[in-house]
Amino acid sequence: MPESDAFTDRLDPEMCVVTAAVGERRSGCLVGFFSQCSLEPVRFTVWLSTANHTYETARAAGCLGVHLLTRDQHDLAALFGGECGADSDKFAQVRWTQGYGGAVVLTDVAAWFVGRIERCLDAGGDHVGFVVEPVQWGGRREGPLLRLRQTLDIDPGHPAGRPSPTESGG
């Protein structure tokens, strides 16, 4: 992608934290590539970098947790975007509970859902899409959502040293 792009430079998507768990192994990362992709049934797609630690856990998981953050939760975004889960236990630093299918649910976020992974979409790039169907949801915080532009100061904790402007952490 060009260094400066007239189209993508205008985008400012909401950011979320995606979590995955398999047994005792937990992972989570900050993600900006996600969207609702179906009305009936309701489904979302979250795109995870193949270089990310969370991607490996997600490939083995049956469900993913998807969490929206408010603008005042920059510290939570920095934890999941700036640290690599291969090097630290991010979940020791936050309140969480176990959700449907063993998924990790961050309890102090704007809104969340646990989605059953229905399929993976490999578009041949550096991210793979996980199509998830929500089966459990909740929320606890009001306020405007955290957006990409408010996270650009976070140095990615990406394990392969290939920072992604819309997904980091690991």
Topology readout:
Elements: E1 16-22, E2 25-31, E3 34-39, E4 42-49, H1 53-60, E5 63-68, H2 74-82, E6 96-98, E7 104-106, E8 111-122, E9 127-138, E10 167-168
Antiparallel strand pairs: 1-2, 1-5, 2-10, 3-4, 4-9, 5-8, 6-7, 8-9
Condensed summary:
The chain is mainly β and 170 residues long. The protein has a single domain, classed as Electron Transport, Fmn-binding Protein, Chain A (Pnp Oxidase, Chain A). The chain has helices at residues 53-60, 74-82, and strands spanning 16-22, 25-31, 34-39, 42-49, 63-68, 96-98, 104-106, 111-122, 127-138, 167-168.
Q: Bin the strand percentage.
A: 35-45%
By CATH, the superfamily comes out as: Electron Transport, Fmn-binding Protein, Chain A
* Structural class estimated from helices and strands: mainly beta
- Give the integer mean of the pLDDT values: 89
| Helix and strand run | EEEEHEHEEEEE
In terms of per-residue confidence, which ranges show pLDDT below 50 for 5 or more consecutive residues?
Answer: 161-167
Strand order of the largest sheet: 3-4-9-8-5-1-2-10
Tally of discrete structural domains: 1
**DSSP, total strands:** 10
Into which percent range does the helicity of residues fall?
10-25%
Query: What does the radius of gyration come to?
Result: 15 Å
The fold-level CATH name is Pnp Oxidase, Chain A
Taking the sheet with the most strands, its summary is:
8 strands, antiparallel
Tell me, what's the shape? globular
Q: Just give the CATH class.
A: Mainly Beta
| Assigned CATH architecture | Roll
Could you give the distance between the termini?
Answer: 22 Å
Number of helices in the DSSP assignment: 2
Domain Flavin reductase like: 15-154
Organism: Streptomyces cylindrosporus
Keywords: Oxidoreductase
InterPro entries: Flavin_Rdtase-like_dom, NADH-dep_flavin_reductase, Split_barrel_FMN-bd
